[in-house]
Every structure is written in structure tokens, then in C-alpha cells.
Amino acid sequence: MKILSIESSCDETAAAVVEDGREVLSNVVSTQIEKHKIFGGVVPEIASRLHTENISWVVSKALQDASCTLEDIEAIAVTNEPGLIGALLVGVNYAKGLAFSADKPLVPVHHLRSHIAANYITHKDLKPPFMCLVVSGGNTLICKVNDYTDFEIIGKTRDDAAGEAMDKAARTLGIPYPGGVNLDKIAKNGDANKYKFPHPKVDGSPYDFSFSGLKTSVINLCHNAEQKGEELNAADVGASFINAVVDSLIEKTTLAMNNYNEKTLVLAGGVSANSVLRERIKNEAEKHGWKLYLPDLSLCGDNGAMVGAQGYFEYINGSLADLSLNGRATADITEPNS
To answer: Which CATH class is domain 128-295?
Structure first.
């Protein structure tokens, strides 16, 4: 079964053709990094306009690269939640028009479910149930994946996401956008033990994360140094900051894995590309005897293939939408799509 999938939740206009939820026939991504770099972050209005400019040719190229026409496609999947609402609506409305004109089923897909599904492409043998740590620019959570469309939240961030905290730390250090990616590169040459950052905990919620205080601490460190005329080593600060973030991610995930007696762990989301997180979670899995699945680096960022992978399982589950489908800026991974 071939699914044409569309992704436009943030600053990547993407489309893909995926067969049976596992085989990628094409995967086209038009990035907006250079357009947003001068602002130091994504500007929602500009992102929406660029999606409008690019979506038609991106979808056409995805079909062309897969040697397909719309007649060969059995369903159209689209990210409709969560994300930047203006950006989401570009993809949703394009998908609705395409589905209507071609008389194809329309499949709404949750963005975080898609990130998890990237692992189904990388690892053809991976099947639920398993525990998953989802770490991205806008979300951080631990969830039990009971089935392909059945999710249970174990813990989540109470404020900022880990990726957002990394982006803000990078910006404070004067590291160019995309902050998290460039912070990771610079930190490779830094001393991760040079600076001590806090390890926030949430009282009564042992699996929940909090990164706002950690973000504030690096901002205060930089501002205090500037006021005193001291020069900070960006590599050392970056390495120490990333180490503190990963400490929290590993600690909560390990606690959840042990308390729920899980033996299979999956990593997902844009921050799953972070080199420190990948290395340390591999070590943790080896220490505890867990089976660990990591997405291919090419599938960590937003892309259409992951939407097509999850879209297949949503379709099989009967999760279809009509032309009243809307975008939603926020939505839990457990919520039925609509």
C-alpha cells in the first residue's frame, strides 16, 4: 500500500511516498534554515509563506522520485497536529484539496507519533510494545507505545522542551541557528565538567522533566560573565549544558524503564540526533541489558517519510478524516486525531 505523506508543522516543507509503513520510495525535504537564520529562530509567518511557495513542487517531486502518479497512491497522510498553526494549515489544506480532487482517503497524523514511526523505517523488525523517549524542539516525553496507534504518557516536560532549552542556550552563547545542532558540534571540543548546571526535579512526578530553570541558569551564567568582563569558552559551556540536559533525560528514562519492567527502548525526535544523547543512551542500554532502537540520522529531523510510516498504521486502524479536518497547535500524543 503506497501512501503519499505531507509534513509542514514547523520549518520543513516535506513530502514522501511510503509503502506499507516501512519502505521509503521517496523523501523530499525543502528546508527553510537559511531564511530563518538571520532572525536566530523560526518566524511563524515566514514559515507559513514559504510552505505555501514550496509545497506544490515538493509533493510533485516526491511522486516523481517514487515513479508514481496519484493513481498509484492509495491514501494521503498529513501532519495536522501539533505544530505552528499557520504552517500546519498549509499542509492540511493542500492535502485536503489533493484528497478531494483525486478521491483518496485522507489520514491525519500526529507529529510526535510520526517521529516514533521513523524507527519503523530504520528498523524493519521493530514492533510495539516498547518504551519511547521522544525529544524534540517543542516536546519532551516518555511514553509507552502499546500498539502502533495506542500510546500512554509516562512523563513529560512541565515547561520547556529539551530541544528548546538547547536552542536558547546556543543563542545566548552567540551560536548561529539552528542552535541545537551547532551547539552539539561546538560542544564536541568542550569540557563537559567545567560548569555545574542544576538538575531540576518535579515533586511528586518522578518521570516528568523541567528545563526552564536549566535554561535560565545558562543565561545567567553568560550575563554575569559579560557584566564582569569575563570571557566564557562556548565549547565548555555548551558541553556542560548538554551534559546536564542528557543527565535528566537518562535519569527519568532509566527510572521509567526499571519501574515498568521494560526491556525495549526507542529514541525519537529531532534531538535524537544529538551525539551525546545517542552515545550515553547506548551505554545505558548496554548496562541494563535493554534492546535499543535509534532512528537513522537522516530521519531524526522533520520529514515526510515518518508521516507516511505512521500514516499507514493510522489508516489500517481506520483513523480517517473528512474535509472538515483542521490543524491543532497543541495535542497530546494519546488524543484521538480529528
So the answer is: alpha beta
